[in-house]
Structures are given as C-alpha cells and as structure tokens.
C-alpha cells in the first residue's frame, strides 16, 4: 500500500469582487505509475497514487493478461523516483499470456489503450454478454450518478478527478474509485470488483467522463450489463457497445439521460 496522500494544499491567488486574495486549495496528486509483470514494465501511466493494488489488478484484467484474481500470486507497490511501480507476480499460465502480449508490443504507449501498436489490436473484439438478465429502472441510473457524486471524496475536495462506481439495485453504489485519469478510475474499479467478488452482472457501472471506445471495452471485459456516464459517447463507443450486448446510457444529468444501445434493459416505470 502507498503512504502518499491523494491530494495536497497549494497556494493560489483568487480574484473575487474586483480584488486579489491569497488562499489555499487542495489539488490531486499526479504521479507516474508503472505496472510491471514478472519484472518487466508493461506500461507507465500518470495516475493518482491511491488504490494502486486495485489499479494493477484491474489493468491486468482489462488488458487481457489475467482472467481471475487467482491468476496473480503477489502484488507489491514500490516507491521509486517520481512515482510508484506496481510489481505483479503472475501464475505460470498468465505469465505465458503476458509473454505473448509483450511480443506484439513495439515500445512506449499512452494511456487508454496501453500496449497497443496496431489498429487491429486497438479495435479488438470485446466479450459478448452471456445470460445477463439484469434490468434496471430509470431511478437506478439517476440514483447511481447522484450517489457516485456524493461518494467522490477526492473530487469533493479538489474538483479535478474522475470517478467510477458500481451500483446494485436496492443496495446503492457499493464501490467507488477515483483518479485523475478516467481509464485509471475504471481500471481501479475493475480491480476492486475482482478482489471483492462482486457479481458484475447484477449491477451497473457509472462514470463521470465521456464514453470513448476504451471505456466500453473495459466495461465489457468487466462483464457489467450497463454503462452510464455523465457525458456523451463517441460513434465507435456506441457501435462497440451494441456488438457486445452492453446497454450504453449517456448524459445522465439530474432526472434525464439518453439510451444508445440495448434499451430493453431499462424498464418503463
């Protein structure tokens, strides 16, 4: 576990009512986080230095390196100059899968589609939802977004981070993760769900970002039937969600939202 705080106070000047004043404001920490498997660094991303074990697990899952939590032997979060190294030891089968993945990598990558060097890999097929019968009321989607906002402690302090939450009807938002990166927040949530053995098919994921294709791909790999967001989707995100059997809900604001794919999962009240 990391001891570094997720935010710190900084000095600023504010302009109010025609005058400048000195004041403090909390801002989120942003550090380099490497994810390493078997002693080999797979990717480095800028992230908020909390819940890094969840991040490493979720990243490994959504990158196709592991399929279940038992594929991992150990995780060590090591402080290094400028950030942290999440060192993951894999079981033999997953280590072989990682070795194959490495052979297709050409070099450093950015966030979102880490380790992707070709169009074919970027547009990789996503899992199809199988035998997921979960349905939701409009109230579930509206409540999920409202509850996520209330449970984002870091964003409440800084107004500068994304959030991802898992909502279960009759229970509310049971898990929340935050990060300066929207992909990172969703990976952290994926790791937390895998560790805590939540059943993804029984709930929905809600995020505070736009819906890009990478967010849809991650949600499909997690196995949730519905992904909801505060902002709009891209065309490719819609197309990918439709093929995966994922219900895509966007622009969840107040008492309103839009459904783009598989609207049958949202019941008429």
Number of structural units classed as domains: 2
CATH topology of the largest domain: Cytidine Deaminase, domain 2
Name of the top-level CATH class of the largest domain: Alpha Beta
User: What's the total count of β strands?
Assistant: 12
Count of runs of 4 or more consecutive helical residues: 8
Strand order across the largest sheet: 8-7-9-10-11-12
Intertermini distance: 44 Å
Q: Tell me, briefly, the overall form.
A: globular
Order of helices and strands: EEEEHEEHHHHEEHEHEHEE
Class by alpha and beta content = alpha/beta
What is the CA-atom radius of gyration, in angstroms?
A: 19 Å
Reported for the largest beta sheet, the result is:
6 strands, mixed
Percentage beta strand: 25-35%
What is the mean predicted local confidence, pLDDT?
A: 91
CATH homolog superfamily of the largest domain = Cytidine Deaminase, domain 2
């Amino acid at each position: 576990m990391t001891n570094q705080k997720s935010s710190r106070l900084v000095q600023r000047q504010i302009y109010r009512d025609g005058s400048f004043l000195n004041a403090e404001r909390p801002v989120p920490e942003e550090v380099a986080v490497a994810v390493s498997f078997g002693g080999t660094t797979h990717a480095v991303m800028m992230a908020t230095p909390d819940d890094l074990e969840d991040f490493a697990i979720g990243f490994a899952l959504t990158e196709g390196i592991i399929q279940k939590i038992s594929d991992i032997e150990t995780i060590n979060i090591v402080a290094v100059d400028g950030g942290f190294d999440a060192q993951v030891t894999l079981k033999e089968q997953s280590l072989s899968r990682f070795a194959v993945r490495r052979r297709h990598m050409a070099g450093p990558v950015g966030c979102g589609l880490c380790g992707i060097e070709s169009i074919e890999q970027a547009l990789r097929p996503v899992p199809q939802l199988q035998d997921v019968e979960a349905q939701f009321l409009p109230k579930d989607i509206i409540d999920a977004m409202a509850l996520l906002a209330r449970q984002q402690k870091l964003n409440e302090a800084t107004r500068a981070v994304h959030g991802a939450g898992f909502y279960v009807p009759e229970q509310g938002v049971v898990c929340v993760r935050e990060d300066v990166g929207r992909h990172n927040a969703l990976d952290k949530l994926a790791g937390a769900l895998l560790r805590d053995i939540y059943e993804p098919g029984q709930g929905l994921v809600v995020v505070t970002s736009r819906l890009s294709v990478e967010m849809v791909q991650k949600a499909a790999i997690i196995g949730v039937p519905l992904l909801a967001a505060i902002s709009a989707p891209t065309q490719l995100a819609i197309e990918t969600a439709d093929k995966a059997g994922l219900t895509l809900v966007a622009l969840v604001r107040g008492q309103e939202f839009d459904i783009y794919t598989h609207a049958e999962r949202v019941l008429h009240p």
